[in-house]
Amino acid sequence: MERNQLHRLVALSRQPLFDQGFLDEQFLQLEELQDDANPNFVEEVVTLYYRDSARLILNIEQALERNPLDFNKLDILMHQFKGSSSSIGAKKVKAECTFFRENCRAGNGEGCIRTFQQLKKEYATLRKKLEAYFQLRLHAAPSEKSVAEEEMAGIHLKMFLVSEAL
Amino acid sequence: MNLTKEKKSMSTASSSVGWKAGDVVPDQFPAGLRVLVVDDEPTWLMVLEKMLRNCLYEVTKCNRAETALSLLRENKNGYDIVISDVHMPEMDGFELLEHIGLEMDVPVIMMSADGEKNVVMKGVIRGACDYLIKPVGMEALKNIWQHVVRKKRNVWKHLEQSGSVEEGDRQQKQSEDVDHSSSANAGNRRNSKKRKDEEEDAEERDDTSTLKKPRVVWSVELHQQFVAAVNQLGIDKAVPKKILELMNVPGLTRENVASHLQKYRLYLRRSSGVSQHQNNLNSGFITPQEATYGPLSSLNGLDLQTLAATGQLPAQSLATLQAAGIGRSVVKSRIPMPIVDQRNLFSFEFPKLRIGDGQQQQLSTGKPMNLLHGIPTTLEPKQLANLHHSAQSLGSMNMQVNAHGSQGGQNNSSLMQISQSQSRGQTLNEATGNHVPTLLPSSMAQPILSNPVVGGVLARNGLTENGRGTEYNLVSQSSSMLNFPLNSAAELSNNSFPLGTSPGISSLTSKGVPQEEVSSEIKGSVGFMPSYDIFSDLNQHKSHDWELHNVGMTFNASQQNNSLQSNLDIGPSVLSHQGFSSSRRTGQNSNISAVGKPMFTAGDASERVNAQDVGHFNTFFADNSVRVKSEIVSDANCQINIFPEQFGQEDLMSTLLKQQQQGHIASAENEFDFDGYPLDNMPV
């Protein structure tokens, strides 16, 4: 498969992420920032995000186990999580953060727990999709690939797209 | 780009704005702009750094405000512009902004996902030259260089007009940028500059005329000189004229000093409020208490702490005060007791508070800073004075705070005792019935950062009563002197501290500000007065059912007695956290056990406020600006119940809040807020 086609496929593969609301323009900004000096910039940022958000999720879980709930602390933690998520354009995750914070402000403990579960789900989904996307990009990256390898990459991309469509 | 060099050379140059030979070729400007970016979120920090690098700027990143501040201090001219996030642990962006505004005149851009008007307003008021909403885009960052240029131009203009003054070629105060919006263009620059000039004129007007004064750049050294002078004079005596004389800096005018003093006071006031993160500021003044005191403690705690520290207020009283101050402070909860610690407020503020010794020591202004963070600086002097008089500075304050309105007879009596003892002592204000020095500071939601204020408040409350006529009517009259501090502090401090909480505090307003000057100054800058007045009303109520009363902090306004005298030894964290029994609410007012280490080490401790961050301010107060005669709290009978964190802050808070809400406190606060902040930008 031609390089152009691969690239186009890669571009296509990430389109659903935007269409389905997982990512917003901020992610595009990150991609624009990527250049020869930082060829893996987006992936680096996203990796950093995983680390940071994993830590925050843990903190929030611990905070949710306390009794009574410290809504102020939860709100602060979620504010951080939201900020972090906004840095990579994680749209759906951000929305869940907002719901969570509303529950905090309302002092609704059950609501907090519920929205947090939802948030974790969205977060897991996003992670999966992003990882798949980066895999594809890796496949499509210019490299010393043999024609056969490129063919395989192309096939992988197509499969990915198909699976996304389903 | 070596702006510094260029600036220097510019000072003698004409008004050309171009960059002279420096590290950056003028044509390439703004490439090479040295940006310091501060954000606690690692992902954003990475993204911003990349964005700024793509703009060809020279980027330095850090994830803590404290780090940023030390970087800036180490290399004053090392950065052209600072971009900082608002919400950060420990020291937040606004606090950093204030520090930078006072110490080094670098433009600061605030940034946050929070685009709420109030928050943005805070940034503007504190002198941020711009406020960006996250997610931040490249376009926004590409234009940040305009703020650097603008500032320089203003500096040059001033220099040209008036011939150099200040230290030379420093940049103008950041305050100038307040007027500017990020989209300002050259035309706006001029307009804004004019506006600024007008503001300056309006604010500084004094003897000089319309002549624009060249901007003074308050370097760290200069600021330290300033702080030293203020401390030397005593916070209550720290008038611009005298400060100027003491500083003896050629070219510095009284107006420069006046505006800087206002800024400083506001800073103190605010820092108490902000202090939650002030831990670093206070060198663990109240560390032990930190943990314990929750939000309430923050403000109230501060005051209380201060009081405690100074007046050896019993921890309880401190707690009480805190609780009392909760009104505001609770809400704010920014300043937990710990903050007080941090703030060194206590340590600084009342270094000289010697409660019990009857010595009237002034609380070092340094401390007050911490204590009364939000408390208008003007108060400080007075308060200090009061403190002195009431000698119970902290003690009384706490007492007052607790005393709130002396609700019950029990409380009242204890308060009375306290206040009496306090007042007996060296009522700073000579107020006879000094009410326990209202721990304004403490109550004032803000951590009693404003030591001077606190001191003053305390002192005042207790002492004043009699109104020296000064604006602070420190609780003198009301038994709830303690309340006063809380209340007044709250009000004063703008930080929505429930000033109203302590009925007693109202006395602050007018009572005896010992020094005329001080009072006037205070009045001016603080706008505090109104709040105090409110308190007076409250004071009348004596039976204020403020929880503070229960706490036992009720110091009756009339306390002249110095029973409260306690030695304010400001030991870090003394506050009483430990010492204070949670008699909060218990109305045990009987003893004001100055907490562990009185917050104000009256006299001795001097101010060594550990608040490093408070930095120069500490020194500022350190001395004794808040000479709260420590009669505070020394009284055994009055138990200052500082509300330990276990204290039902919520209860207190609600009570306080209620009071506040009813009162003008809220309004005062708001007003104050606005009134106060512009002062920050007062051009020197």
Distance between the termini of chain A: 23 Å
- H-E string of chain A: HHHHHHH
Distance from N terminus to C terminus of chain B (CA atoms, Å) equals: 27 Å
Tell me the number of helical segments of chain B per DSSP (H or I, 4 or more residues long): 30
Quick check: average pLDDT of chain A? 85
Percentage of β-strand residues of chain B: under 5%
Which percent bin holds the helix content of chain A? over 70%
Structural class call of chain A reads mainly alpha
Biggest pleated-sheet summary of chain B: 5 strands, parallel
Please report the total strand number of chain B as a whole number: 8
* Tally of helical runs of chain A: 7
Shape of chain B: elongated
Quaternary: heterodimer
What does this structure look like?
Chain A has 166 residues and is mostly helical. In chain A, 81% of the residues lie in helices and 0% in strands. Chain A contains 7 helices and no strands. In chain A, helix 3 packs antiparallel against helix 4 and helix 5 packs antiparallel against helix 6. Chain A is elongated, with a radius of gyration of 19 Å. In chain B, strand 3, helix 4 and strand 4 form a beta-alpha-beta unit. Chain B has 684 residues and is mainly α. In chain B, helix 18 crosses helix 25. Chain B starts with a helix and ends with a helix. Helices cover 50% and strands 5% of the residues of chain B. Chain B has a 5-stranded parallel beta sheet, with helices on both faces. Chain B has a two-stranded antiparallel ribbon with strand order 6-8. Classes of the chains: A mainly alpha (166), B mainly alpha (684). Chains A and B meet through helix 2, helix 3 and helix 4 of A and helix 2 of B.
